[in-house]
Amino acid sequence: MGRKFFVGGNWKCNGTTEDVKKIVATLNAGELPSTDIVEVVVSPPFVFLPTVKSELRPEIQVAAQNCWVKKGGAFTGEVSAEMLVNLGVPWVILGHSERRALLNETNEFVGDKVAYALSQGLKVIACVGETLEQREAGTTMKVVAEQTKAIAGTYFKNFKF
Fold first, then answer.
1. pLDDT at 161
2. What is the pTM of this model?
3. pLDDT < 50 stretches in the chain
4. Spatial distance between the Cα atoms of 46 and 79, rounded to a whole number of angstroms
5. Is 10 helix (H, G, I), strand (E, B) or coil?
6. Could you tell me if 103 and 66 are in contact, meaning their C-beta atoms sit under 8 angstroms apart?
7. What's 76's DSSP letter?
8. How high is the pLDDT of residue 1?
């Protein structure tokens, strides 16, 4: 069998209950190739995850937009990997450029988040990429290599095979 395609859509911090119902109805009515050919994942804001998961046809999976770096606790506003697993959410997106830029999430912190999410059984969509300034400076490959190295390095450091 050939390569399996992956299509994902992140809704970011957008939508209302009514918007979500319309998007889910559109997705449910759409034609999709077999899950042997393409894996489709959508990522609504956290507050809509249970609704989307329960109303979306089963061959379209859901992803959380983020999760905390370790087991839950006194981390106001965060969502733990364990909570996502409890909700039956199989995917999480980590390493968003805006979280790196605005919340100062370092490559190492993102690597720790990825490793922890994987250890809890989640599948991870790891975001890597450069800023416009980095692209214009010609440092894209260096930036992406550092981000990827931090993710892979943390994962292999924390887990025995």
1. 46
2. 0.91
3. 161
4. 9
5. strand
6. no
7. T
8. 59
146 CB contacts (<8 Å, ≥6 apart)? 107
> Quick one: pLDDT at residue 16?
97
Mapping DSSP to helix (H, G, I), strand (E, B) and coil, where does residue 5 land?
strand
DSSP 8-state code for residue 46: G
DSSP class of residue 45 equals: -
CA dihedral of residues 113, 152, 120, 50 (deg, nearest 10) = 60
Radius of gyration of the chain (CA): 17
Which two structure tokens, joined as six digits, stand for 12?
């970011």
Question: For the chain, what is the mean pLDDT?
Answer: 94
Q: Can you list the pairs that 109-113 forms with residues at least 24 positions away whose Cβ atoms lie under 8 Å?
A: 109/69, 110/147, 110/150, 110/151, 111/150, 111/151, 111/152, 111/153, 111/154, 111/155, 112/69, 112/154, 113/67, 113/68, 113/69
Structure tokens at 36: 């042997």
**DSSP 8-state secondary structure symbol assigned to residue 149:** H
Type of residue found at 128:
V
Residue 13 CA from chain centroid, whole number? 14
